[in-house]
Amino acid sequence: MPVITAPYAFNEGQLFVDLESICGRPLHLKCEGFNFAGSIKLKAANEMVESAERDGLLTPESILVESSSGNLGVALSMIAASKGYQFLCVTDSRCNLSTRLLMEALGSEVHVIADQDSNGGFLGTRIEYVRQLCASDDRYLWLSQYTNAGNWRAHYRTTAPEIADQFPGLDVLFVGAGTTGTLMGCARWFRQWHRPVRIVAVDSVGSVAFGGEPGRRMIPGLGMSMRPPLLDESFVDEVIRVEEADTIRMCHRMARRGFLFGGSTGTVVSGATDWLARHDAEDLTAVAIAPDLGERYLDTVYQTNWLQDLYGDHVLEDEGLGPVTEEVEPASRTSERRRRP
Ligand SMILES: Cc1ncc(COP(=O)(O)O)c(C=O)c1O
């Protein structure tokens, strides 16, 4: 029976979902959403805060500041509340409403950036905003998840060995790439393991993390509008890119089987399923990482109006995933609310 006194002290590390019946391929999904921060970012947040404390950078007077699309912001909000630090999160208009409200409920200040940078993302603008804050007052401490080695070290210490413990015959690992902290920590750890593991990075179309053309991306967490400073491509065997419409379809396919995951999990599972179909993968042991769960995305990924406005009326129809409410109860209030105006 785990009994804790601090909210960051519990993190389920051994839960995997066998997705074969959903994806039609042997694939296990490591679930990172079962902790009080609700995402994989708890690991990076813990590691970065503890190392700043050890180095004497973080004092009771400090005001933590971080640029985050949401999940790291929630994790830092929780840790800051528990340890008595102030925290200011700089996010952007793609951050889910519920995520912003969560940070505020935990006592953090949230600044929302609405101006896009030259790559069509918000990261450049967010980082510039954080820089200006830090220049304005010595009390601000920017952990900088984009450059902080604690970000990848957290996964080197925890995520990768947790996978290896359960899958001693692992052949291929699919990891979504944002800051690439998860990717680099796992890739570095498996590079020195007893057997070769193919490391496949999953990015979204429109992200420039691994090069390529910038484009519209509406699902937060995965993808970057700049090259991630933590990324060392010599540890990555392959990069696959997933269209957001495919992400959406995979999220809904899993939800129809009762597994409500976050948007980036749809990206990783869609990319992994496609990869496994293209390779003769029946005998391969494959694992993918699910960074969070789906409740924070009810007003985006799982909301019919949002989907139709961004991806067209038929985004869910190809696989018979059209909105059930309209077909089953065409006259009900629920369907009226969900139908596009
Ligand atoms: C939902 C979600 N998926 C994926 C990622 C990417 O993880 P990483 O920054 O370790 O590359 C993040 C990071 O914030 C996230 O919040």
Automatic annotation (TrEMBL):
<keyword id="KW-0808">Transferase</keyword>
<protein>
    <submittedName>
        <fullName>2,3-diaminopropionate biosynthesis protein SbnA</fullName>
    </submittedName>
</protein>
<dbReference type="GO" id="GO:1901605">
    <property type="term" value="P:alpha-amino acid metabolic process"/>
</dbReference>
<dbReference type="InterPro" id="IPR036052">
    <property type="entry name" value="TrpB-like_PALP_sf"/>
</dbReference>
<feature type="region of interest" description="Disordered">
    <location>
        <begin position="321"/>
        <end position="341"/>
    </location>
</feature>
<dbReference type="InterPro" id="IPR001926">
    <property type="entry name" value="TrpB-like_PALP"/>
</dbReference>
<dbReference type="GO" id="GO:0016740">
    <property type="term" value="F:transferase activity"/>
</dbReference>
<dbReference type="Pfam" id="PF00291">
    <property type="entry name" value="PALP"/>
</dbReference>
<dbReference type="InterPro" id="IPR023927">
    <property type="entry name" value="SbnA"/>
</dbReference>
<comment type="subunit">
    <text>Homodimer.</text>
</comment>
<dbReference type="InterPro" id="IPR050214">
    <property type="entry name" value="Cys_Synth/Cystath_Beta-Synth"/>
</dbReference>
<keyword id="KW-0663">Pyridoxal phosphate</keyword>
<feature type="domain" description="Tryptophan synthase beta chain-like PALP">
    <location>
        <begin position="20"/>
        <end position="291"/>
    </location>
</feature>
